[in-house]
Amino acid sequence: MFTAPMPIALPVTAVTCLEDRAHVERTVVLDLEAGVQRLRLGPVSALAVDRSLHAELTADHPATVLDVRMVRTWTPARPLPSADDSALRRRLHEIEAEQHAVEQRRDRLHARLDVLGRLAADLLREIGEGAGAGESDGPRWARELDRVDGEREEFGEQLRATEARLDELDAELRAVEEAMTRSETAPAELVGHVELTVDAAAAGPVRLRLSHLTPCALWRPAYRAVLDGGSLTLETDAMVWQRTGEDWSGVRLTLSTARSALAGEPPRLGEDRLTLGERTAAERRTVDVELREEAIGDLGPAPVLGLPGVDDGGEARVLDSPAPVSVPGDGRAHRVPLSAFTAPASSEYACSPELSPLVTRVVRFANASGHVLLAGPVDLVRTGGFSGRGALEFTAPGAPVALAFGSCDDHSVVREAEESRTTTGITQRTVVTRTVRLHLSRFSAPAEHGGRVVTVRERIPVSEVSAVEVRVLGEACSPAPDAVDAEGIARWDLTLPPGGRRTVTLVYELSASAKVAGL
Q: How many angstroms separate the Cα of 29 from the Cα of each of 163, 209, 260?
């Protein structure tokens, strides 16, 4: 069997980035001899999953893959410093050695100053004791004090110079390390190669396609929304991280939400028995009700518990990069453009005082990208520049999208609510009357003109049982709601002039029969 003496380069040509790993595809044209031969291909990432290796040969003459396997070699770290080191690395070693020596000198100076401090204290104590005993040796005491103070000043100055030198070395060390990070790549200690055994019927070129899975790679969707007057431009990008041990240069990149690590199994069928029973006398006399919060359903899938990551609506989605991309294997986030579209947009100044006292500008538009918009962060850009970051929910193609472009600081909303409860005489019905007052104010600059429409929404309870009735008292409302939908959301479209104020009053009552309990 013929064995190739030198490794053959096997570059990455296509990558399918999954939610938590990547499927890497490599292609190369091999010039084979006739017969059985073993080839060494690489180097490749040592993180490649062995059981996922798959090799295919395409040629005009018969050629078969007999065996394919990963071979990893360990390269021990070379001694430091080495003659093969670059100028930056040698300078790094010099700085570290000098830093160690200066730190030792600083420690010695601290020890010397500590000794001199104790000596000065002993000398002052001796002077105090001698003066108390009637001794007088002024010249010697002055001479000793001057000598101690001079040494302390001298070594203090040396300590200050040493600490300044340490600061200079720290700054230079950080600069050299940053330059090495940008210009040099540390040699890989664990290197992988692919050993391929093939059988060719005749000599000639053969195209090899090899694929495998590798961890340490992931992606997440990201967006950039630019609002310009009555139109909005939404750019769809992918943030890609990978630290597989090799760079992806000029590859065809595909983004997928498939979760290959999850094992599929059919749901378990359990027994669910339904039985009928007679109600008790107490149950027939009363109807138990309770007030609960319900989220209003919207477009998009329900959140899937236990599957953190990309929200794809329960169906694997695939997005392709329109051009070849390069993603270095440095573990940092790299932005890859996927698509962009411009659509007409409508703005609404909306407020829900029960949830927040802020008036928010909401922009609505249709998804004209031609593909689903996965849930992810959105960078919001308006005429004045970057205005913040929002979140985009899962959106189907052509479905409406709502983005909040921040609150309006020149608006203020105050909400007041009060409740009264009465019981009628004959029927013993309980009537709960609730009054909600909303005070809206607009603070505008002196040169600002024109009114602004603010949409205010307030909740009204919705009854699911006939024993409880909810009714809006239109004659007591000021003004009456413009609309009340089936979910109980009352809406007003109020026009506020510059510096204007409006007050909205909503009155509704809950009427329950005598057998209702829990209201």
A: 61, 9, 30
d(CA 55, CA 59): 13
How are beta strands 516-517 and 287-288 bridged, if at all? parallel
This model's pTM is above 0.90:
no
Measured CA to CA, the distance from residue 283 to residue 279 in angstroms comes to 6
User: What is the C-alpha separation between 153 and 150, in angstroms, rounded?
Assistant: 5
H helical segments located in 49-188: 87-132, 138-183
The amino acid that residue 395 corresponds to is: T
Residue whose token pair is 């057998």 = 515
Mean pLDDT across 63-75: 90
Provide DSSP, 181-193.
Answer: HHH--PPPSEEEE
122: Cβ–Cβ under 8 A, 6 or more apart, which residues? none
Q: Which helix (H) or strand (E) holds 242?
A: strand 231-242
Boundaries of every domain in the chain: 2-75+187-214, 91-183, 218-259+311-407, 411-517
CA 412-417-418 angle, to 5 degrees, is 155
DSSP-assigned beta bridge partners for residue 495: 453
- The phi and psi torsions of 379 (rounded to 5 degrees) equal -85, 120
pLDDT, tens digit, 9 for 90 and up, residues 250-296: 999 999 998 776 656 777 888 888 888 888 877 777 777 777 766 66
In whole angstroms, what separates CA 213 from the centre of its chain? 24
Q: How many beta carbons lie within 10 A of that of residue 484, not counting itself? A: 16
Nearest-angstrom CA–CA distance, 338 and 221: 10
Find the DSSP H helices in 239-311.
Answer: 281-285
**How many helices and strands (H and E) does the chain possess?**
3, 28
SS3 463: coil
Which among 194, 251, 187, 177 is positioned nearest to 217, based on CA atoms? 251
Q: Classify residue 171 as exposed, middle or buried by CB count within 10 Å of its CB (0-12, 13-18, 19+).
A: exposed
Which amino acid, one-letter code, is at 180?
M
Task: Determine the Cα–Cα distance for residues 253 and 323; give it in Å rounded to an integer.
Answer: 8
Q: Which residues contact 293 (CB under 8 A, 6 or more apart)?
A: none
Distance from the first to the final alpha carbon of the chain: 88
Report whether CATH 1.10.287 matches the domain 91-183. yes
